[in-house]
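Field guide to reading this record: the first block holds the primary sequence, the second block holds the structure written as discrete tokens, and the final block holds curator observations. Each block starts with its own label. This record concerns DUF1269 domain-containing protein, catalogued under organism Ancylobacter aquaticus.

BLOCK 1 — SEQUENCE
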Amino acid sequence: MSSIEPTDDVTTEYSEREAVAVFSSEAALHAAVDSLLQIGLEEKDMSVLGAHGAFSLKSLSELEEAGDVPRGAYVPADERAEGLAALAGSPALVAGLCAALVAGTGGAALIPAIAVTAGSTAAGGVVGLLLARVFGRKHAAFIERQIGDGGLLLWVHAPDTAKDTQIAEILAAEGGKDVHFHTVQRQWTLHALNPDPLLRI
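BLOCK 2 — STRUCTURE
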């Protein structure tokens, strides 16, 4: 019986230059990002502490300099609000549409179908609001914990040194502390494709 030799994973190391700052409030962090966007940076250039596995035995200063700390993409406050609104409304929409299909029977069945539509939509809306509230509370707790540990970290991808002065001034003007630039080492791994899921290595 022949076997296929799996290809080894390929790991590439690279350097990334970035600015880092610590904020004492989420509002200040958002204001700094808004100002950075006005000088030509993009949201993809910003990253914050990741929600999963972010807290460790590392101090805040160690987290600032770590290239392997879990990070998350920056999400504007209005987009997060829209996401929570969609989360709240989606169950109601699905329930309403499903119940509306029942209403298509017409005739004598139409009156109870309307009641089913209204009831299911209301119930779906309650479920959506509960889900939105849970996610909203988790986010608030995560932010509160970071602030309690010293502040909210913001990293700004800054390969172009020509904008260093502008970036530093904006971060400091919006309340950023310990504003500085550094270069971190990162790794990117291309995992080997195993054509046979039952193949044991």
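BLOCK 3 — OBSERVATIONS
Strands lie at 10-23, 46-49, 71-73, 152-157, 177-190.
The chain has one domain: 10-51+73-190.
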